[in-house]
């Protein structure tokens, strides 16, 4: 299995299958020599997905193309019989594969021109609940949140560092244990903490060190969120996820203010723990959050973490 760019015709790719495993591997090698843009890990995942779905054993070629530049068309859906691939051409990776039906919505995930709109299409039950197929596809897509390491720790060579899901889970616990606050819906805070980084299931953990402009980061995450809502099948639950994510992104409520503070509190608490466990000094995480807390809870919890850090460092 491999995807190959056709240089003469712009952003065209071919999904190629060979009749036998041996032939498939030979075909992969051949495509690689012709400058396939994907890694062996991607090809192995495609191969495993295709075999698991029992795709047609005969040689098949499927081309998908767009005249739009990659930056405006960050993701692309490729469907073949019972296998649907969602490919990120920019990051050169297979994002998602579902084995039953094409992913709902348009191939384009740019929210400004997507045919799928806001991802609010209703399912047969008016969106009250997702079908079992949509639910499992969505949860499978979210699996990468459990396995993708937070890049700030990776950049500091922290062994066994936390995943995106680890970070969101402890933020959710913060929202669960916080005392009642005037005008703040604690249940909404818990939900917001659970979904605030959910788009990273597709785009990964984009940090300032990546050099991606803030507006572009937001656009990519918005596009990914739209696709995730489509995978879920649209409806009320997808709309709730999208609304919670957008509210957090825009810092548009008291709940968003608090959850954004929890995001920073969780990070510096994790930094303190890694300093203790690995004997490192991780000043940048504390400096980057200084003076940026919006709520009294955030300020007081951060102050407690700083107090413990200063005590440990002997300051």
UniProtKB/TrEMBL annotation:
Domain of life: Eukaryota
HD domain mapped to chain residues: 164-268
First-level EC class: hydrolase
Record field: transmembrane: none
Reaction equation(s) it catalyzes: a 2'-deoxyribonucleoside 5'-phosphate + H2O = a 2'-deoxyribonucleoside + phosphate
GO MF terms, alphabetically ordered: 5'-deoxynucleotidase activity
Alphabetized InterPro entries for the sequence: HD/PDEase_dom, HD_domain, YfbR/HDDC2
Cofactors: Co(2+); Mn(2+)
Cross-referenced SMART domains: HDc
Ranges annotated as biased composition (Low complexity): 110-131
PROSITE patterns (UniProt xref): HD
Region Disordered, residue ranges: 109-131
Gene3D superfamilies on file: Hypothetical protein af1432
EC number: 3.1.3.89
The protein's assembly and partners: Homodimer.
Recorded family membership: Belongs to the HDDC2 family.
Cited function: Catalyzes the dephosphorylation of the nucleoside 5'-monophosphates deoxyadenosine monophosphate (dAMP), deoxycytidine monophosphate (dCMP), deoxyguanosine monophosphate (dGMP) and deoxythymidine monophosphate (dTMP).
Protein name per Swiss-Prot or TrEMBL: 5'-deoxynucleotidase
Lineage: Eukaryota, Viridiplantae, Streptophyta, Embryophyta, Tracheophyta
